[in-house]
Amino acid sequence: MNDDLIYRDFEYANSFKLGELTGQKIIQAVKEKNIEEIKRLMKLPVDEGGLILLRLTAKDKNGKTAKELALDSENKEIIDLFE
Length: 83
Hints:
By secondary structure, the protein is mainly α. About 75% of the residues lie in helices and about 0% in strands. The protein has one domain (about 5-80).
């Protein structure tokens, strides 16, 4: 296997992990009603925040996504961030 393929695969795996971690941070920000942090985390480029899909599909310990938690909060400003 050549080094370029190994490097590409490593970067791809890292973007998965980073997306999951960013997703957990978004969940925490929703729970804390930290609108500025939610905005910051949602706007991160892929190389800083990981895969966007993983950010949005991450679940808390009760199996809820950030969007579901936002809807539960009934905070329109937070809900609008996920629309």
